[in-house]
């Protein structure tokens, strides 16, 4: 598959999608997250038809608004279509120790999606 890349702006994430690896980092403060994330959603929809043996998703948010959280949840939900996704998909959810709300968002997604989440505490 062809790489999908979004360079970060002040209010948008740095996004990179390549075979076997999806990463998002930075801030997401969007007036229309559905429109912004649609190319990523479309890329993942195609990717799950012929995925790599292992898929690693790295999510490292500084700030993310509620509507962006829903869009990202919808993207992660697509990965459930990969056969044996609980073994083949790893989600690395980065959070700062002083941001328990962001950790909680990841834990909620983990509970709903049942993918293999790793919670990684980091200092920016």
Could you please describe the fold and organization of this structure?
The chain has 124 residues and is α/β, with parallel strands linked by helices. The protein has a single domain, classed as Transcription Regulator spoIIAA, CATH 3.30.750. 37% of the residues lie in helices and 34% in strands. The chain contains 4 helices and 6 strands. The chain has a 6-stranded mixed beta sheet. Helix 1 packs parallel to helix 2. The longest helix has 15 residues. The protein is globular, with a radius of gyration of 14 Å. 27% of the residues are buried. The model has no long low-confidence stretch (mean pLDDT 96).
Overall number of strands:
6
Q: What topology, given as strand order, has the largest sheet?
A: 1-2-3-4-5-6
- List the uncertain runs: none
When the domains are counted, the total is 1
Major sheet details: 6 strands, mixed
The overall pLDDT, averaged over residues, is 96
Please report the distance between the alpha carbons of the first and last residues: 32 Å
Assigned CATH architecture: 2-Layer Sandwich
Helix content: 25-40%
Spatial shape: globular
Which structural class do the helices and strands define?
alpha/beta
User: What is the element string, with H for helices and E for strands?
Assistant: EEEHEHHEHE
Radius of gyration: 14 Å
CATH domain topology = Transcription Regulator spoIIAA
Strand content: 25-35%
């Amino acid at each position: 598959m062809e790489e999908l890349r979004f360079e970060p702006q002040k209010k948008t994430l740095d996004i990179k999608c390549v075979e076997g690896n999806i990463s998002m980092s930075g801030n997401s403060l969007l007036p229309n997250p559905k429109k912004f994330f649609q190319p990523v959603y479309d890329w993942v929809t195609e990717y799950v038809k012929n995925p790599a043996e292992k898929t690693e998703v790295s999510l490292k948010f500084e700030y993310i608004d509620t509507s962006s959280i829903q869009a990202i949840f919808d993207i992660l939900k697509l990965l459930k279509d990969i056969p044996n996704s609980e073994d083949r998909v790893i989600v690395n959810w980065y959070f700062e120790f002083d941001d328990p709300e962001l950790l909680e968002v990841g834990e909620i997604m983990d509970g709903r999606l049942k993918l293999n989440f790793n919670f990684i505490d980091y200092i920016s």
